[in-house]
Amino acid sequence: IAAALDRARIEEEIARRAQETALLHSIATAAAGEDDLHRILDATLERLSSLIRFTGGSIALVEGDDLVVRAAVGLFADVALGQSLPRGRGLSWQIVESADPFMSNDLLATGYHGKSQKDDKVVRSYLAVPLVWRDQPFGLLQVDSFEAHAFRPPDLPLMQAVAALLSGPIELARRYQAEVQLRRDLSQAKGRLEAMLGTAPMGVLFFDTDGHLAYANAASYETLHLLPHEDLLLHRSWDDLIARLLQRRWAGEPDALRAIVEKTRALRSGVLVHDFPLHSPDQVFRRIAAPVIEEGTFSGHVIILIDVTGERRALSEAERSIALRDRFISIASHELKTPLTSIKGAAQLLQRLQSVDMLDEERARRHIGSIASQADRIRTLVDELLDVSRIQSGRIELRMEPIDLASLVEEVISTLPEEQRARIDLRTEPASIQGDSLRLEQVTLNLLDNALKYSPADTIVDVHVEREGEREDHAVVLRVSDRGIGIPEADLSQMFEPFARAGNASTRDDKGLGLGLYITRQIIAGHGGTITVRSAEGQGTTFEVRLTT
Fold it and tell me: Among 47, 155, 294, 473, which is 20 to 30 Å from 240 by CA?
């Protein structure tokens, strides 16, 4: 009987060893070449249940400061999967940190106890071994049972053998998974970066350590038009690109661009900021350059280009507005002061003559006429200022009605002094339009006043009103030509700006704010028409107003 029992025990042990060997071979085969961590873990627990009796089993891995269950089988696998345990808490962390296995068939007697989240059942048997790779524990293989004495002594070395067998494949699978995720994250980050650089309203260029273009985003050639795409090819050198930029677009001194580039190439720390001008089209770029340092090693230069043309124009307009304001204050104070001085002088003279009983009718008439004339001049200046204010605030109003432009011009001329009327050669034909008669009278008077003022007293001023075309939508043209001093070519483009004056206007005894032509153009524009000027210095000037019916 004893021999039979020994034989049976030996056969059982041999069978057990054979089953363990088959199990380990099966687990090794399942893990070999497998890069999916979850498949390795799930397959291990499923095969392990064929030899070890347990209610539930799980594999937990260290992730940061948590121990996270990544595979689970048994009654409560759905509850256990994904659970995490903070570092330093519970028996599981003690096993991992000590790297020592633990087995108990009477967990309550050891002072540990575990209660399931279902049916309030208590874990009585518990077996766990650490997962170790290169002397560093990184996880835990554990099984448990609601039954006491569920595990046998051979179960512990089997679990240790399984853990040793799995540690390498698990760690490699984790690394592969981390590498896959890293590549995915890098690909996503690269895609986002390329999308941002592709849609950003700025140019981004990168030059490598050899001074060759290694990257240029689409905005550099599609939005900013720095150079055509065929010129911004990769691997072009600094010198090649400088030559192309000088040839195609650079609007400054060639040496200035070369100096900027050489300073940039020598840059190893800090940031350089330059504004530089380009032509075709006219632009101003703000260029920000900085070295790229990777792990303490210089790897190239990044250049960022921002179009500040609008900013520069706004700044220029602001400076121009300030200059116009200062000029306005200067001109207005002078122009208003002169008639006020005349009025005050005439009034004081009248008072003194009256006080000494020397004021006769002729003197009184002459000085009162001077006061009235200077008051009219002040009124004209104030009216011009009010018109400018209305124009700039968009409050100028036009009362449109059918009028004959030829009759209107004739009436304006009839109000001029005799000596001025004698100098005007008027030729008209009926020209009906829709317009504001008062404002068009103002336009006609401005043009006549300029022509008479800036031409010799013995010359003729030609005034023509004519129709162009016979259709209902024909244009009506008012043309005023003089044979005076003319306008220098450099000043022609500025003649319709506020306070504009030709450079040779100072040779004449002229007065005023320089607002007449500016107001004239705004009135004509309000009528949907245009006004142009042709002039040659020393030969005369022609203003042409074109209005549609």
Answer: 294
Pairing of strands 203-207, 114-115: unpaired
Task: Report the C-alpha gap between 423 and 146 in whole angstroms.
Answer: 124
Query: Within 10 Å of residue 207's Cβ, how many Cβ atoms?
Result: 24
Cis peptide before 498, with omega less than 30 degrees from 0?
Answer: no
**Computed from CA positions of residues 143, 145, 149, 151, in that sequence, does the dihedral angle turn out positive or negative?**
negative
Using CA atoms, how far apart are residues 468 and 119, in angstroms rounded to an integer? 103
Identify the DSSP state of 306: E
- Pick the closest to residue 277 from 260, 291, 262, 289 (CA basis): 260
Report the length, in residues, of the chain: 549
Calculate the CA 300 to chain-centre distance.
25
Q: Specify the pLDDT at position 458.
A: 92
User: What count of Cα atoms within 13 Å lies in the side-chain half-sphere of residue 426?
Assistant: 19
DSSP annotation of 472 reads T
pLDDT class for 509, splitting at 50, 70, 90?
Answer: very low
Query: What is the crossing angle of helices 254-265 and 238-248, to 10°?
Result: 160
Cα–Cα distance measured from residue 359 to residue 370, given in angstroms and rounded to the nearest whole number = 16
As a whole-number percent, the residues of the chain with pLDDT over 90 amount to 32
Rounded Cα distance between 141 and 99, Å, is: 12
DSSP 215-241: EE-THHHHTS-SS-TTTS-TT-BHHHH
Using CA atoms, how far residue 506 sits from 87, 372, 377, 512, 537, in Å, is: 91, 27, 20, 12, 14
**For all residues of the chain together, what is the average pLDDT?**
84
Taking a C-beta distance cutoff of 8 angstroms, is the pair 235, 206 a contact? no
The pLDDT of residue 396 is: 74
Separation in Å, CA 312 to CA 251, 283, 479: 15, 9, 38
Question: Each residue of 278-290: pLDDT tens digit?
Answer: 988 899 999 999 9
Name the residue type at position 244: R
pTM of the complete model: 0.47
Cα three-residue angle 240-242-244, rounded to 5 degrees: 70
